[in-house]
Design a protein that fits this description.
By secondary structure, the protein is α/β, with parallel strands linked by helices. It has one domain: NAD(P)-binding Rossmann-like Domain (Rossmann fold), CATH 3.40.50. The protein has helices spanning 13-22, 34-41, 53-64, 78-86, 115-118, 122-146, 193-212, 251-260, 280-292, 312-325, 353-356, 366-378, and strands at residues 2-6, 26-31, 68-72, 105-108, 151-157, 172-177, 180-185, 215-221, 224-225, 265-268, 274-279, 300-305, 308-311, 332-335. The radius of gyration is 20 Å and the shape is globular. The structure holds sulfoquinovose-uridine-C1,5'-diphosphate.
């Protein structure tokens, strides 16, 4: 099948490209290096250098004989987006430069993904809204006009729901009001501009699905952790880029790097904030199972994409235990919370849907953490402790 991956240079986009390619699919990745440029803009280095996207595609081809076509282009430009479907956009790197044709499935990761980045200042808030919403709208119209039967898999976020004082359902809620019943999107109340942009994405797509019978799976994902995937084992230069700074790093990734750098773990506030987490390998599995069992025309299918829930305190405890076993003197610090979020709250999301289509979840065990530490330790000399706290607050 032809799989088009928007945001194919990213932490999840590139591992997804290799995952689909390894399973025999024709993959095209598109990216404008937004994240790489934003990291330079906010002075947030990766843990290790990452080759350019065409270079990664060449390394992958040499290692496996498989081709991942690369297009470097900005999808917030509507003509560029449409060119992906009409064949007007040229490949930056491909073995066979002929147009592959319409995609069977599109993975949409082409978004600014960081809450702190979106609240750095009004300019970055605007960049987040403009990039995420215009790219999503461009995609929706291009699919409607050129490929209405193509299945879109969008990476949403559990943060769309916020932390309500009721159980979180998988996307939808049946409501009875004054004796009548209907089904609505589960109430959303995000705690950053980034998360709010994802709510708006969902609303845009839901409009397109109702109106033009498009088909989409929205994966409401929690924070992801990890580095290595099965495919990156063939050559370590194929590992995804990896952030540990305050702006683009997510909490488990940060805690492991902080431990190796002998920096106290930065628990924000009381540390009772609970989220649903998943291993990067499980993200790939969830996306692939969603591709194998597509949503129907006119269906907005929503899954909560998490493996297990933890408080920040529980994560700090686990990372501290494993770090200590590996000889790191890990301390845990409670720093003033730079974010506006509930630090103690009810949290009970449903997340059985993905298991229902065949996903086998992999929990965060001590063994998994040991493997993760081992890779970070290889790059200890690159860690810049000044990136752990950069003073972004809202
Ligand atoms: N946290 C700490 N200390 C840190 C970093 C984070 O206590 O050093 C806390 C945060 O305050 C928050 C929790 O850990 O309560 C998770 O924070 P995070 O930075 O790991 O994740 P978040 O900002 O929520 O965003 C990440 C991804 C985003 C994705 C989201 C899923 O960057 O793209 O959508 O996870 S979710 O959190 O479910 O909305």
């Amino acid at each position: 099948m032809h799989i088009l991956i928007l945001g194919g240079d990213g932490y999840l986009g590139w591992p997804s490209a290799m995952y689909f390619s390894a399973r025999g699919h024709q993959v095209t990745v598109v990216d404008n290096y937004f994240r790489r440029k934003a990291c330079i803009d906010v002075d947030a280095d990766f843990l290790y250098p990452v080759p350019s996207l065409p270079e990664r595609a060449r390394i992958w081809h040499k290692a496996t004989g498989r081709e991942i076509k690369v297009i470097l282009a900005d999808l917030s430009d509507s003509e560029t987006m449409r060119g992906l479907f009409s064949g007007a956009v040229r490949y930056t790197w491909a073995l066979d430069e002929r147009f592959t044709g319409l995609p069977h499935t599109i993975l949409h990761y082409a978004e600014q993904p960081s809450a702190p980045y979106s609240l750095l200042d009004y300019r970055r808030a605007n960049i987040t809204l403009a990039n995420n919403l215009i790219t999503t709208n461009n995609l929706m119209f291009a699919v409607k006009d050129f490929a209405p039967d193509t299945h879109i898999i969008h990476i949403g976020t559990m943060g769309e729901y916020g932390t309500p004082n009721i159980d979180i359902e998988e996307g939808w809620l049946d409501i009875e009001h004054k004796g009548r019943r209907d089904r609505f999107l589960f109430p959303r109340q995000a705690s950053s501009i980034y998360h709010t942009s994802k709510i708006m994405d969902t609303d845009l797509f839901w409009f397109g699905i109702r109106t033009w019978k498009l088909r989409m799976t929205d994966l409401m994902q929690g924070p992801v952790y990890g580095i290595e995937t099965e495919e990156s084992r063939v050559d370590e230069r194929l590992r995804p880029y990896f952030n540990y700074d305050e702006i683009f790093g997510t909490v488990i990734n940060r805690f492991v790097v902080q431990s190796v750098a002998r920096h106290p773990l930065t628990v924000y506030g009381k540390g009772g904030q609970t989220r649903g987490y998943l291993n990067i390998c499980d993200t790939l599995q969830c996306v692939y199972k969603s591709f194998e069992t597509p949503a129907n025309p006119g269906e907005l299918r929503i899954f909560n994409q998490i493996t297990e829930t933890f408080t920040v305190n529980e994560l700090a405890e686990r990372v501290q235990r494993v770090g200590t076993e590996r000889g790191h003197a890990v301390q845990v610090n409670h720093v003033e919370n730079p974010r506006k979020e509930a630090e103690e709250h009810y949290y009970n999301p449903a997340y059985q849907g993905l298991q229902g289509i065949g996903v086998t979840p992999h929990p965060l065990t001590d063994d998994v953490l040991h493997g993760f530490f081992a890779i970070v330790e290889e790059h200890k000399a690159n860690i810049k402790p000044e990136l752990f706290l950069k003073g972004v607050r809202w």
